[in-house]
Specification:
heterodimer; A: mainly alpha; Arp2/3 complex 21 kDa subunit ARPC3; about 0% strand; B: alpha+beta; Thrombin, subunit H; 3 domains; 6-stranded antiparallel beta barrel; 3 helices; about 35% helix
Amino acid sequence: MFLSAVSNKRIQLIIAIMTVVVATALEELVPPFFFVGMPFLLASVMIVAPKRSAIAVVFFAVAAGSCEDAVSSLPPLTSVGFFLAAAFAVRNVPTPKVLSYIAYPLYQLYLAVWIADLNGGVFVRTFSAFFVGALAVALTTPALSWLDRKAGVDEQG
Amino acid sequence: MKKKRSVAVAFVVSAAILAAVPVIFQGAAIEAAYPVERAWKFINRSVFSRVAGFFRGAEARAENIRLKRELAALALDLSESADIEAENVRLRRALNYIEREKNSYLAAPVLSRGGGAAAVRNIIRVGKGSLDGVCEGAVVTVPEGLVGRVVSVTLHTCEVMLLTDATLRVACVSESGDGGRLYGILSGGSEEALLLKHLSGRDAIADRTRIVTSGEGGVFPRGLEVGVWLGGGMVQPSVAYSTLEDVFIRCVK
């Protein structure tokens, strides 16, 4: 899956960072739908996590979480903690796809624990997060698969 | 085994460093995403707007003529007001009044309205930052009225908290012709209606009375339009926050 075909670790790292940066920019550019934005970063983590090594997943989750905190004006490490927990969970549950789809509503509940006066209220946000999260996963999966195919530099090997 | 462990340690250390970067340099992630956002804005303006303009044809030409006339009228007004301003300064000095602050407005494009997946606050990101002289707390306006306040700044961008956010409080006053005034604190709301709380002064004012900033608290200057009174503590905003394309950041000289 993602980056697996790339033999050079440095290229893997660059592609991972570029993926996070583009996902961050896309999150910013897409306006919120019923108070919640498109979770491209969380979706990428959920897609990458079951198929990569634990160390690479930690790296990816930390990078994605840090960017999420930055663009969402959240206190540092708020999303990092959730993304790491979600990545760990998705690697260890028998149905990772189901967890990928419900991760975003869970994230809204997690945010409600830490942030008072959530914009829109926790129930509306959690409800709309089901649909928005599912859409983000559905959009991100083919994009990352495409990137995987295009970035495969060791096709001969 | 030993090699595997050292690779694991190296990765965990690099992950810790990666996590520390945004904590130490808070704008790093935003600055990294800035070129992508800017590129999208550029494509949007230079390609999509032109295509839209091509299809609008005659309508666009008529709008162009109207805007040129408006510009000429405003230039005439400005030349008159320069004389009045000079006279005002002279008289203030003669009376030993405090001199007014001189403001300049920095035009900035709205880069995004997302605020990330969490979108916990009503914010927009605009394309001017500390390199352009924007500082935290600066007031952001458009010709229609007050937009909000700068809450964080990176090198090339800044985050503007909108009036619709419940955590942004603005002291306001009604602008009524007969002398009666209503005071209140604007405390968030939606695109359709903002909430005016802690009302005092005259409680019955006419519908559609203009509500402006009172200048109390020292954060927002006096007289910036916020909206019109709808009754029952509701104010219809004068700015359409969801369709903002450019804003003006007020920089005090």
